[in-house]
Each structure stands twice: as C-alpha cells, then as structure tokens.
Amino acid sequence: MTDSPQAANASTGVTTDTADAFLDPTASLRHAPGPYFGEYGGRWMPESLIAALDELTDTFDKAKADPEFTAQVAELNRTYAGRPSLLTEAKRFAEYAGGVRIFLKREDLNHTGSHKINNVLGQALLAKRMGKTRVIAETGAGQHGVASATAAALMGLECVVYMGAEDCRRQALNVARMELLGATVIPVTSGSQTLKDAINEALRDWVANVDTTHYLLGTAAGAHPFPSMVRFFHEVIGEEAREQMLAETGKLPDAVCACIGGGSNAIGMFHGFLDDPGVALYGFEAGGEGVETGRHAATITLGRPGVLHGARSYLMQDDDGQTIESHSISAGLDYPGVGPEHAYLADIGRVSYEPITDAEAMDAFRVLCRSEGIIPAIETAHALAGAIKVGQRLAAEGGDPSEKIVLINLSGRGDKDVATAAEYFDLLPDDSAEAEIGKDGEQL
Amino acid sequence: MTTQTTSKAAAAIDRARDAGRAALIGYLPAGFPDVQTTIDAALAMANNGVDLIEIGIPYSDPVMDGQVIQDATVQALKNGFTVERIFDIVEGITSQTDAAVLVMTYWNPVMQLGVREFARRLHEAGGAGLITPDLIPDEAGAWIAASDEFGLDRIFLVAPSTSPERMERTVKASRGFVYAVSIMGITGARTAVSSAARAVVDAAHGAGAERACVGLGVSTAAQVKEIAAYADGVIVGTALVAALRDGGVEALSELTKDLSSGTGKS
Ligand SMILES: Cc1ncc(COP(=O)(O)O)c(C=O)c1O
User: Any idea which architecture A83-114+235-439 has in CATH?
Assistant: First the structure.
C-alpha cells in the first residue's frame, strides 16, 4: 500500500498510538488521541489552516487537563443543556425487537433537541479561550446550525452558518430558528448545494478569517484535532449511559446501537463501552433507497478509503476519487464521508456497521411514536430500526430474551421532522397549507 | 530544498532568472472547456511568455478555489473530464514546447489512482511534478518516495500563517520551488497584492528556499511587476481562466503577453 499514511508516518517520524493498539489486542481503545486512528485520520488540509489546527490542538489539550475548564463544561451541561439525560426503558417498543430489554439514552431531551449541544458548548468555550470572536459552522438539516447559533448566543459570539441552498429551501423553519438566535445563514450554491459543499464553503471562510474565527465543526470528522475533540465532548453520553445501565440493570448491555452520519453521537456513546469486549457495538448508516440503488449514504458499507475535508477515512467516491453525492431521507445522515475513528473501528472489527433503508427507518420511527410516545429524529430512527434487527437476532440465539439488553442512543427528537414524516405517511389533507409546502419537499 | 539537476521547474525558473526576470507561471484547469482547448491554450501561454504551465485537475471539492475556478472545473467535469486525460494533456503540451508543465491537484484523485502509478505516468508524459494544495509534507511520505523515484518536482505551499518551524520543514521537503500563498484566502483576482506576500517569500528564502513563487490573487501586469521585484516567480490563475472563458485562446494570449511584460526585475 504505497499510498497509506502509515508510510508517511514512518518517513516523517509521526508516531501512531492507535496503530500500536491495533497490534496489541489488550490495549485500550478509549481516549484515542489522534491524529491517526490506525491508517485513518491525519491532516489532509491546506497549509494555510495548519497553524489554526495547531492552535486549536494546543488549546484543547490544555483545556482538557484544566479542572476549571472541565468544571465549566460540566456546569453548562447540568444547568443549560439539561444533563444528565435520562435513561428510559422502552417496554412496548421491545416487543418489536424480539422481546429483549431495550433502553433509550435520551439525548432528545437535551436543550435544542439532540446530542449536538454537547459539542457546541465545548467548542464555543474553546473559541473564547482562543480569543476568537466569531464562529462558523456547516449544517445539513439545521440541527448543528441551530445548536451552534444557540451556543454563540449564550457566549456572545458572532455566528455564521453555511447551509446548502437546497437544504435551506427544504428546512426554511430551521433557517428562521438560526436567525432568531442571531446567526447569519449563508446559502451555499456551489457544487451539489448540500452538506459537503457547506463544509467546503465554511473551510473557505475559515482560511480567510482564521485570526478571528473558530470553525465549529459539527461531527467527529475532519482534520486533527476535530475527530478526537468532538468525541471528547460527546463522551459524556457513553459515561452516563454506562453508569445508568449498571444502576438500572446491574450489568452492561449486550449491544449498543447508534446512527452514523459523520459519527459524533455514535462515537460519544461507543466510547463508554469500547473496552468492554462483552458489549457488541453497532453503527447504522443511511441505506437510503437501498444500497443496491446507488442512492444511499452507507459510507463504510460501500465506500473506499480516501481523503475528504481533512481526514483519511471511508468515502463515497467514483473511480477518479471524485466525491459522490449521498442520499438519505434524513438530512443529518446525508454525508458521503464518515469520521476516521469509525473507519478504524470498522477495520479492526470492534464495531459493526450496517445500512438501514429509508423505509426501514420510517417504520421504526412510527413504531417508537406509537409504542413509547416519543417522536424521534429520522436520523435516530436508523438506530431504532437497527436495534430491532439486533434484538431479534439476540432473541433468535435462544434463552430468555428478557435477559438480553440493547441500549440505543436516542440522538435527537423529531420535531424538526414532523413535516417529512407527515408527508411520508400521507397524513396531510391535500388542501392543507402544509401539503402545499410539502410538495416542494419543504419541512416545517 | 534539494537541488537536483533533474528539476524541470527549477530549470525553467533559472532560465528566467538568467534573463534578468522572474518566471511567469500560468494556471488553467484541465478539460475546460475540453481537452484539446486546454492543450491549445497552454501552448498559447507558452508562446506568449509563460515559463511554467500549471494544469489543475478538476475535483469535486476544491476548498482552496474561488468562484471562477470552481465554475470552470465544474464545467470540465460536466463535459466529461476524467483523471486519465491529465496525462494526455501533459504529453500534448510537453511534446510541443520546452515550458515546464506542473499538475496542480487535490490529493484524493492521486491517492485513488495510486501515488506511485500517478508519478510514473506523469513522468512518462513529460510532466515536471505536482503542486499539492491540500497535501502537507507531514502526510506526504508516499509522494516524497514516488517523486524521488521518478525525479518529479514537489511544490508544497507556505502561507502567511506558516510557523518558522514549518517553513523550514516545508522548504526542505520541496523540490523545484515553494509556492508562497500571498494572502490568507482562496484563489480569485484581488485588486491589491497583500503585503504579507513579501514576508512569506522572505521567510522562505531565509529558510533556505532557492526559489519561491507567489500565487493567489495576482491578475495584472502591475501586480506581476511588484512581485517580480522580490520573488523568483509569479503565479497567475483566475485572471487567465476568466480570459479563456470570455475571449478564448486569443484573449488568453493577449493577457499572457501583457502579464509577461511585468516580469522584469529592473
Ligand atoms: C438527531 C441527530 N442524530 C444524528 C445525527 C448524525 O450526526 P452524527 O453522526 O455526527 O451524530 C444528526 C445530525 O444532524 C442529528 O441531528
């Protein structure tokens, strides 16, 4: 493999801690520091941004070790985000999952409605530490944009959000939400006008304004230190869940399920269990209209290693290395890349990644609504659909299914998805204003 | 910087230097609007005063490029450009001119073809080497090995934000010249050359670079003249692409001639 960054590492003397973990099966997988996760990760970035990445790495490393910073994060989590988030046993949903016990980690109950708040609060604090006055962010459906605008408002930072023009049109109300919070939303008309192009545009802004501006990346992807830093701010999910599971059931779950966009909610949850070999970990990617149709976002399932947005990882690309557009009913999973730590965890077999189609996700979405009174985000519905399969497989192994436990990261609530779901399930009267809007793919 | 007699880029810059001027380096995207036009346009640049030709590989996610180049590369991809054709273009140019031909490329297309295979074919086509906007020396182990094997130039970028330590490392890793980014930003014509450009060139020379060329935002003969006073070469992209787009090869030739009038060191 002449183009492996490990060759690069060897020649430039950069050590790879996670590569050592690969060789030693007893080594801990937790707290992988980057820049490399096996042969993934790194910094495939313009030189102009390296100084900013160095500054961020340095600030983050110091902050992590500073009790004042960790106390600040913990305080915001407790008094602003609403942590710890609840753990809810889903007894009626469990009937659809082979009768195993199902637990939901309720990130949907966080302020702004998803796990995204964990990361933005941490990064906004770092931005302040670096003396930056402005944050920029990319967003697909608008969840990360809303979370970024929220953190910026809270901390008195200017906020600019890049959003594909197509996504702006489909998510007009989330655009309004960001603007209510004082952010400026810039529609991106370049390329495919979706999330990946919003990231390109944010990077172009960052190159030009790096002195005043922090790029508040929304997922555990991108150049070092973003993957390990974003994971750090989400580790609280897995830490809390592990403790709550032990308190509720006296043992660890048999399986943990999460959906994978860029991979932030999943890596935050998985981190708590990476060193527990008895806990099977499952990441569910967006299978879109079916992986055989080509219209999907199943990056690990069907992609090949490549570099995009600063990291080497699995990537949806053509033979020439041009990025292929992804497709998913869920805007938050509609990304042709994935965080490098997931690529590594896939290769070593620690986490299993499987695709879930739009239809499977929407079935699970409806099941959760009706069995538990919880409307999940459509992103999250992919984890629910996957958990149904995992539960059924565990039950099929024999024995008393109620002895088996599956934990699901309920990464977000579905308020933002009501119009999509209403349209999908044909719940809108033809003459309603909503149906009129829905025809154009708008969301409420 | 390794000075190898095989460096085609260095030789081209030195020829200009011997003639008492800075080298003029002209950029065009491959396949815009088609492969044959790229070859014709590159030859026209060479015949009108360009010393080094830089051909960009159109890429789906060009984070260092502004609107004009983005639009041109999107057009090239729409018109069916594939990476394979870059070697035809390089060969088409080098077989008809002495000007050195560099390929500018984001890294993923090279990685997908295979770094060594890419280097082998570029060498075979008569290319001088690569300019790599999103590859830093830290990640370039495979490319350093392949470019050594095939005697190709490695043009890394340095920026106003580059630390002295990184400047030294990047200059050492480069061959041919170092690309001094004039401004914190992306490609696109600008009305004034940033004062940062001179500082970057001075830092590169101070770190041992024998040749440092300035790019990003240069679009007029007056700007070329200003930069030629302190740099070893001047890189023009967006303005040439816009000329080709709006007035074809003829307009491109005119602009090239005009730009080259600014390269004198006097
Ligand atoms: C509720 C929810 N879950 C999951 C995701 C996917 O992102 P990630 O994989 O980074 O958790 C998103 C992204 O918008 C989201 O809003």
Answer: 3-Layer(aba) Sandwich (3.40)
What is the value of ipTM here, to two decimals?
0.95
Residue nearest to atom 1 of ligand 1 (CA): A412
What architecture (CATH level 2) is domain A40-78+116-215?
3-Layer(aba) Sandwich (3.40)
Name the residue among A352, A405, A304 with its Cα closest to residue A1: A304
Residue of the nearest CA to atom 15 in ligand 1?
A: A332
Question: Would you state the structure tokens that stand for residue B89, as one six-digit string?
Answer: 């273009």
Interface of B with A in 167-186 (CB under 8 A): 170, 181, 184-186
The interface residues of chain B toward chain A in range 131-170, judged by CB-CB distance below 8 A, are 133-142, 144-146, 156-163, 166, 170
Q: Verify whether the Cβ–Cβ distance B109 to A321 is below 8 Å.
A: yes
Q: What is the pLDDT of residues A65-91, one digit of tens each?
A: 999 999 999 999 999 999 999 999 999
Q: Spell out which residues of chain A touch residue B137, defining contact as CB-CB under 8 Å.
A: 12
Domain B8-260 - what CATH class?
A: alpha beta
Q: Can you give the residue ranges of every domain in chain B? A: 8-260
Indicate the pLDDT class of residue A319, thresholds 50, 70 and 90.
very high
Q: Is the CB of A377 under 6 A from ligand 1?
A: yes
CATH 3.40.50.1100 domain locations along chain A: 40-78+116-215, 83-114+235-439
Cβ–Cβ gap B83/A309 under 8 Å? no
pTM of the model: 0.94
